[in-house]
Amino acid sequence: MKNLSSSEIRQMYLDFFKSKGHTIMPSASLVPVDDPTLLWINSGVATMKNYFNGTIVPKNPRMTSSQKSIRTNDIENVGRTARHHTLFEMLGNFSVGDYFKDDAIAWAWELLTSDKWFGWDPAKLYVTVYPKDDAAKKRWEEVGVSPDHIVEQEDNFWDIGEGPSGPDSEIFYDRGQSFNNLAEDDPENYPGGENERYLEIWNIVFSQFNHEPDGSYKPLPRKNIDTGMGLERVVSVFQNAKTNFETDLFLPMIHATESYSDGKQYGQDPKQDISFKVIADHSRAVTFAIGDGALPSNEGRGYVIRRLIRRAVVNGQKLGIKGAFLYKLVPVVGEVMKAYYPEVLQNADYIAQVVKSEEDRFNATLADGLNLLNSLIEETKKSGKSKIDGAEAFKLYDTYGFPVELTREYAFDDHITVDEDGFKAEMKKQRDRARKARNADNSMGVQSDVLVGVKTPSEYVGYTQLEVKNAKVTDIVADGKLTDATEDEVAQVIFDKTPFYAEMGGQVADKGDVLDENGNLIATVEDVQHAPNGQNLHTLKLHRGIKVGDQMTLKVDAHFHSKVKKNHTATHLLDQALRDVFGEHTQQAGSLVEPNYLRFDFTHFGQVTEADLAKVEAIVNQKIFEEIPVTTTITDQATGKKMGAIALFSDKYGDKVRVVSVGDYAIEFCGGTHVKNTNELGLFKITSETGIGAGTRRIEAVTAGDAYEYLEKHNQILTNAALKLKSQQVTEVPDKIDQLQETVKALTNKAASLEAKLASQQAGAIFDNVQDVNGKKLITGVVQVSSMDQLRQLADTWRQKDLSDVLVLGAEVGEKANLIVAVSDDTIKAGVKAGDLIKAISPKINGGGGGRPNLAQAGGKNPAGLQDAMTEASKWLSNLN
């Protein structure tokens, strides 16, 4: 067996398929872009949905990748099994309508067995096939697999509902008798069974059918190959590791954790080893997830991160680790993965800051969980039961991160057990929910071929001209079908050349007109999108019929286009200004460039102050006033990155890229339209800033004429305020407001003083009117006060003077009625409670209330019922036993 590191194995896989004509695709962000069906990127093929469903035709139908992925459906198994992980890397090779079974099988066998590549012993390899897939079985035999190493499996058919499906072949590595954990005659002791000896290392899916909505299976117009090889498993084979955790992908984090513990060592105790494994696994997942822009929160992917951090912290406590420690593993993860993911180390300080903040916060949560657990134990003991309810144990697990075994250990000391069946039932409910979500996550949709085969050339010329004459209609789609002519009101059309920008990168599509040779309007352009093969596909509202071959004049709305390009250039300046103010960890998380405003989403851990926004706005305007030239360079990706260009995870870049440079200040890969000089923006003004999710903020802004209108509108507001304040200049407004506030404060104090005197006078009259009801002294009355606070002050005065046993006061405040009831301490002992009395009388004012035994209050909508409430209080007290 070759002695290879994980980095070498990953690169060898990619190099092999590159030698077979595949394009190496970069590992996409774990946070899905424009795919609401996915919580996380959970496989290599998840990043290629649009290629497989025909939405986009790839430049090269052969692709390969090592894709970081997250799955948390079986999180409770992490650390307990040899190969369960939350974050893993999926090596894959993909064919979109190109090669199929023959090549996929031959290349898989070559990679695994050739001395130039993996060089594994063929005798140790087994494959499984779908029983009806004779072609696959025959091909495996042809490449050299012994017939007795080919196992037919009925479940070797990849099918997740509507969309592409087909038979698959799984490849297993025989790790030898020393790994055998089953009896020889055990029905699971075979390649493909549930055992430790035969390790599944690769799955090759022959996607050849569409699973139709009616349940039928129809041959795909283009057969595809989708494969997945878990890097962690392959590394365990090369490094002869008992589990994935004894490899160079995990051991550095395990050894670091040893140094934080109270002397515990990995390999000494199986129970402790589980904690070491959980921490190593979760440290990788949270590091990559936060590095890709996700942040801890109470929902969605943020909750996943929070849960992983909490599980790691709880397991750290089991190892005797006190205080925050997980954040220290971030740079360790970065070192392990730096060969393929250098960005982790580059952002390590920021990622560690986020993790530590969450760890510190969880210490209090952990204490709350322990308090809840102790309460549950005490309640269980008092009730005479011997088991903690399963649902409560699951709440501890799900909300506070307490594994059930931890709950069991705590309860054991008090001779209390846990309702394991009830816990498992709650866990099953969660798994069922996850399984349903997983099926939806992987669905790609039925393949569509309307435009996949349309490859007629179409040139976009809108970077330099906004009007094109003699543009020829090459393709028409009407009513969902290709046609040579249409009279429909709406149609999609491709021209051989066009000045209309197709929506991309957040920039909206151009609008405009389609004219005939005499300048007569033929159609208006409502929208422009990219067809699967990259052409600009125009949605036209037709005023007359058209046909393929027609030649027309295409004219972009120049004013609309100009406003859009100004706002697009502003997003580039804003992006860099945000990095200047908040740090390089800040990433663009989405944008929208409209003619009248721009919207820019960005990742940021923490609040954004008015001072921060002022700095950002000032930087952007300074760059506008500096009149910086905006230039575009067409080059390759490598050269663009050397130029310092920022690339976005959300965008896919071809061999040739456009690098847009605002001087040497803001440099980005971008296919959008831009001004020639920043002075064209005129002015930049932020109109709003809000949080839109965990760690994601949104800025809206305007430029040029829209910025002037925004400022003018606010100037008018200020001018009107000056007039109302009788100020000669708007600059006097702040001083006038200060003066008014002082006056209001003085008047408010005076009014309060007068109200207090009035209340005191009323109180004197009311407090003198003491009734004797059922052996209790009662004072009631409706007073004139301005708030419930003044009613409470009267009640305080009553209590200090010990004027009666019970006090009931009411007041009309505005259009509402307020009631307050106070009861002396001795009267409470006799069974009279303020809360009971308030509930009895509040219906008279169409309200409700409550409070403590000595003081309660209520509000209602019927002030006319206040006097009735006083009468009802006397009746209630007289009927009290």
Automatic annotation (TrEMBL):
EC number assigned by the record: 6.1.1.7
Native source species: Secundilactobacillus pentosiphilus
Compartments in which it is found: Cytoplasm
Principal location: cytoplasm
Pfam annotation, one family: DHHA1
Cofactor note: Binds 1 zinc ion per subunit.
Coiled-coil segments: 737-764
Tagged with keyword Calcium: no
Domain of life of the organism encoding this protein: Bacteria
Alanyl-transfer RNA synthetases family profile domain boundaries: 4-713
Origin organism lineage: Bacteria, Bacillati, Bacillota, Bacilli, Lactobacillales
Record GO terms (molecular function): alanine-tRNA ligase activity; aminoacyl-tRNA deacylase activity; ATP binding; catalytic activity, acting on a protein; transferase activity; tRNA binding; zinc ion binding
Reported function: Catalyzes the attachment of alanine to tRNA(Ala) in a two-step reaction: alanine is first activated by ATP to form Ala-AMP and then transferred to the acceptor end of tRNA(Ala). Also edits incorrectly charged Ser-tRNA(Ala) and Gly-tRNA(Ala) via its editing domain.
PROSITE patterns: AA_TRNA_LIGASE_II_ALA
Catalytic activity: tRNA(Ala) + L-alanine + ATP = L-alanyl-tRNA(Ala) + AMP + diphosphate
Stated family: Belongs to the class-II aminoacyl-tRNA synthetase family.
Keyword hit for Signal: no
Name the record gives this protein: Alanine--tRNA ligase
Entry's Gene Ontology BP terms: alanyl-tRNA aminoacylation
Residues reported in the UniProt entry to bind Zn(2+): 568, 572, 670, 674
Keywords: Aminoacyl-tRNA synthetase, ATP-binding, Coiled coil, Cytoplasm, Ligase, Metal-binding, Nucleotide-binding, Protein biosynthesis, RNA-binding, tRNA-binding, Zinc
Recorded GO CC terms: cytosol
Reported cofactor(s): Zn(2+)
Domain comment in the entry: Consists of three domains; the N-terminal catalytic domain, the editing domain and the C-terminal C-Ala domain. The editing domain removes incorrectly charged amino acids, while the C-Ala domain, along with tRNA(Ala), serves as a bridge to cooperatively bring together the editing and aminoacylation centers thus stimulating deacylation of misacylated tRNAs.
Enzyme class, UniProt record, top EC level: ligase
